[in-house]
Amino acid sequence: MIHSYKFYTIILALLLWLPSAAQEGKTTESSTPKGKVIIRVFTNLHSGFGIANNERGFSLDRSYFGYEYNVGKGVSFKAVVDAGKSSKVDDIQRIVFIKNAQATWKNDRWNLNLGLISTTLFKVQEDFWNYRYMLMSFQDQYKFGSSADLGFSAAYKVANWLSMDGILVNGEGYKKIQFDDGMQFGVGATITPYKGFKFRLYGSINGAANDSASDTYNLATMAGYKNERFTVAAEYNLMKNTKHVKNHDLSGISFYTTVKASNLIELFARYDQLFSKDDWNIASDEKAIITGLQFKVHKYVKIAPNFRMMIPSMTGAKNRCYAYISCFFGL
To answer: What is this structure's pTM?
Structure first.
């Protein structure tokens, strides 16, 4: 459990450190104010087979609408709303959340964010996977953490081959309001030893709200290579004491690759496997395979026919197979 005095010590250290950070490095952004509209829509047409035969139709998975304004000298503001599905309401309904409401300051070495910000748990992996509109990256897909939360993050470019980052947030994601004493603190390192290669190591602790619960720990690792023709990457992820329940540990691997056939067509494949300690989550443990093609119809429009197979770990459970036509459009 992260106690209050530890939390305020961290906050005080950040406030004392920020002025010195602002003096280091050169601002890389133009001093001319400018803004841009943010529109991203994820939709699909899908059909299941066999035991999933009744799961078919059009689906609107996610819609993001917002605006980002750069006031100059590295300072910008961004606000984004997220309209998506929720387990709390019928599937035909959508719930609107504030996804981002943040202030950012950048120069050639520092990147500071404050407010309802994007988290750093799987952002590097998500960018490497690069098909978020079709399927979330492993940790997002299996709820190892949230993609946004309320708090503060900082990244520092130590050298051309190394950057470090830290984040302090509520730990409950952007869909919940913080009511308890638990906080999440994480640190990460991104290493690029040679052009195209990238290694990512991240660890965090999400403090329990009371002494009867256990702190949740996250470990995320990734190794990948990308060039103009193909991408290949592998992940290993571990979450201890899921939802603050002692010994409810989850772990998993993810492998994915992309081959660029032309400027308009990409081939991709991905394999995930989720494990639980002592099979406590056996009903949801599974292997997942996805493969398909992406067509860049337009700069702002992508269409990806893909096939998915979910292979449950529970004895006697049957595989679920789906055909999808996933679509993205936006700015």
So the answer is: 0.88
